[in-house]
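Consider the tokenized backbone below.
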């Protein structure tokens, strides 16, 4: 996009579309021209420990402009997960200290994004700024879920971060949904019906 005259280009990616509990988060990152990092890659390709290290390196670099946004489970249930993802991305862009000229979004184009943008399929492996955004989004979400694990220890959120693992489904079926479960998601609705 810099070739088209856009100088400040943000990479945008989300984390947490698939889980049964917790928020969906989005990261937005503007990298300085010529930025290089040996291991910035799609957050899913990095171990949790390595992802945390890279996150700390990114936010410590004063040249990197970054922000994140989130939509909690209650709002996800109200507007649906696709719309919630779009809202989280828009919130991340609006939270940037500098408004980008344009953005590259992992996947498809996004309704309501407050800047001109282009969707890039598998963008987290093709664009350094999208990969950085994926790391920001994932680390922020994981930290939120570890905090929720303290509040709701019966579900094991620190292990699976709200995804529909066997351990999570067993906890869900035994205890029913808690306040951060996405009630509009089928396994959660089913568990609520069985427990109530």
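A designed sequence for it:
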């Amino acid at each position: 996009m810099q070739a088209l005259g856009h100088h400040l280009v943000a990479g945008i990616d989300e984390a947490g579309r698939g889980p049964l509990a917790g928020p969906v988060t989005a990261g937005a990152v503007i990298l300085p021209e010529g930025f290089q990092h040996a291991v910035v890659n799609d957050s899913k390709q990095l171990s949790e420990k390595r992802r945390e290290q890279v996150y700390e390196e990114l936010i410590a670099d004063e040249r990197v402009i970054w922000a994140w946004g989130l939509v909690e489970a209650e709002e996800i249930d109200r507007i649906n997960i696709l719309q919630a993802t779009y809202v989280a991305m828009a919130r991340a862009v609006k939270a940037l200290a500098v408004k980008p000229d344009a953005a590259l979004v992992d996947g498809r184009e996004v309704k309501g994004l407050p800047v001109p943008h282009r969707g890039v399929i598998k963008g987290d492996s093709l664009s350094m700024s999208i990969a950085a955004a994926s790391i920001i989004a994932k680390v922020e979400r994981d930290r939120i879920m570890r905090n929720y694990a303290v509040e709701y220890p019966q579900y094991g959120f620190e292990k699976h971060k709200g995804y529909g693992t066997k351990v999570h489904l067993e906890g869900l079926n035994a205890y029913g949904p808690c306040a951060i479960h996405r009630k509009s998601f089928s396994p959660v609705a089913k568990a609520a019906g069985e427990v109530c």
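The two ends are 53 Å apart (CA to CA).
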